[in-house]
Each structure stands twice: as C-alpha cells, then as structure tokens.
Amino acid sequence: MVIFKRVSDISEYIKRQKAAGAKVGFVPTMGALHAGHLSLVAAAKNAGCLVVCSIFVNPTQFNDAEDFKKYPITTDADVELLLGANCDVLFLPSEAEIYPLGTKAASAFSFGYLETVLEGEHRPGHFKGVGQVVSRLLQIVSPDFLFLGAKDFQQCCIVRHLLIQMVKADACFPAPELVVCPTLREPDGLAMSSRNRRLSEGQRAVAGNIYRCLVSIQAKQADAPFAVLKKECDDMLKSKGFHPEYISLAHYETLELLDEFQNGRPMIVLIAAVLGGVRLIDNMML
Ligand code: PAF
Questions:
Q1: DSSP string spanning 127-183?
Q2: Cys staple from 22: which of 17, 84, 158, 196, with CB 3.0 to 4.6 Å?
C-alpha cells in the first residue's frame, strides 16, 4: 500500500495509474476503521478497482466541538487493517492540504430540503461540511467509483446531489459512479460505527435495541399505524437509557417525511438516538 500525505503527490500518482488504464475506487473515511469500512474496500476490490482510501477527520462537518475532540484516532491500527484488506493507496492529508485557504474559503454547497431534515435538523451545518470535504477529495482523487455505506443513508442522498451540482458547475468534472454498500452489523444487530467504541460495556449491551426497533417497525407495518409503532420504540429506547432524537418514516428517494405507511411507495425508517453521550444512527428500508 502506498501512503500519501500531499495532494500534489497523490494526484500525480493517480494520474499515472489512470493513464495506464486503472479504474479508481474511492473509499473516503474519517478513520477508526472497522469491518464496515473494510467491506467498502472489498467492494471496490471486487469491482476491479485500484482502491484509494482516505482518512481525514473533517472539522467542518462537526456541529459539536466536543464530538470532534472525542472522535477516535487510531491511525496505526487503521493502516494495519487496510494492509490486511489489500487496499492499494492510503491518503492521509493534514487539514492544510485539504483546506489550503482555510475552512471558511472552501466551496459551499446547498442541498435545500435534504439538509433541513433528520440529521440536517439535528446537526446544523453538518452536511455543508460533508459537501465541502467530499467535493475537495473528489477533485484530488478523481475516482471512477465512490463507495459509501448505507448506514449514513442521508449522507448518500446528499452526495448524490453533490455530484449533480459538481457536474452542473463544471461540465468537464468526471463524476464517479456512487456505489452504496449495505450496513454491516454486530451479532446483536448494532450497525457498525466508529462511535461504537466510545460505548461503555453496559451501554454496548443495550445498543442493539435501535436495530430491534427497526426490525419491529418493519415487521408490524401492516398491523399498526406508524405513530403507534414509533411511540412503542420511543418508550422502549427511553427505558433502556437512550435519548431518541428522531424515529422517522420517509420516502426512500426524496426523504420526504411521512406520517403514515403508504402502500406501494418505497419507504425507509431512520433512527437517531444518543446513548451515554454517544450519538448512534441507523435505518432500514421497508
Ligand atoms: O462518512 C464519513 O466517514 C464522512 O462523513 C466522510 C464521507 C468520510 C466525509 O468526511
């Protein structure tokens, strides 16, 4: 695996690899890697790509300074995991490489309705930060394929819109194909996340209840109104020590929020809940 820290070096390397016929598969991450990230690397490998992974804890997407400070940094272990996964290239930039003119000067994107609901409502500015860093990374890496995990479902919707905006702004921008990979889960159903390692033993023991809520809403959708199932889950999560932020039903493509199940429409249930100061999200398609 080749490790780059400078934009000029990785750009030059990728240009040469592409000229030699390589297809680049990009897995952007914030590190603290787990099996979910490695499944994205494996998906890129299986697609026959030269796999480029980035690790950069992007300050502009944290609306909560404490959350940024506490974000786990495990670079040595990450490098070992990527070596084991046969990743080809690791990009480990500094903040100055990503934001050479400072974070305030980075391009700003607007995502309209999409950035006002769910995560957007509870983490104001978060998706602006995601847009900034992903657009910058895409300009640097010029991937043919971009691999993201379905756990961050709204982020995938935002990035899809980002790609459209980047093409609109520059018709020559070679937009990658977005590949959304399934969420990997622990044996009790908890969605794999870098944040899980901040849970205490006791919190970890109950964390799988978010998944249980999703499964029960999916199983009972024909038998009870959404509001009833939502209340059931809200009560159950609270009884286990969670502070639920939202338990929402939405249209799968537009993320239009729905009050009730709608026959024949593709829907998704999304949950965000805080457990012992750790914010967990998950979702399930209906
Ligand atoms: O999902 C993440 O880890 C981050 O939001 C991403 C896409 C790497 C941007 O910083």
A1: HHHHHHHHHHHHHHH--SEEEEEGGGHHHHHHHHHHHHHHHHH-TT--PPEEEEEPP
A2: 17
Residue 6 pLDDT: 98
With CA atoms as reference, report the closest residue to 250 among 128, 123, 116: 116
Average pLDDT for runs of 10 along the chain of length 286: 98 98 98 98 98 98 91 96 98 98 91 97 97 98 98 98 96 96 98 96 98 98 97 98 98 96 95 97 98
**Ligand 1 mean position to 30 CA, how many Å?**
6
Q: Is 122 a catalytic residue?
A: no
Dist. CA 131 → ligand 1 center (Å): 10
CA–centroid distance, residue 240 to ligand 1 (Å): 29
Residues with CB under 6 A from ligand 1: 28-30, 58, 61, 130, 133-134, 152, 155
The residue whose CB lies within 8 Å of the most ligand 1 atoms, and thus the one to mutate among 38, 54, 130, 140, is 130
Give the per-residue pLDDT at 171.
92
pLDDT attached to residue 95? 97
* All structural domains of the chain: 2-181 (3.40.50.620), 194-280 (3.30.1300.10)
pTM: 0.97
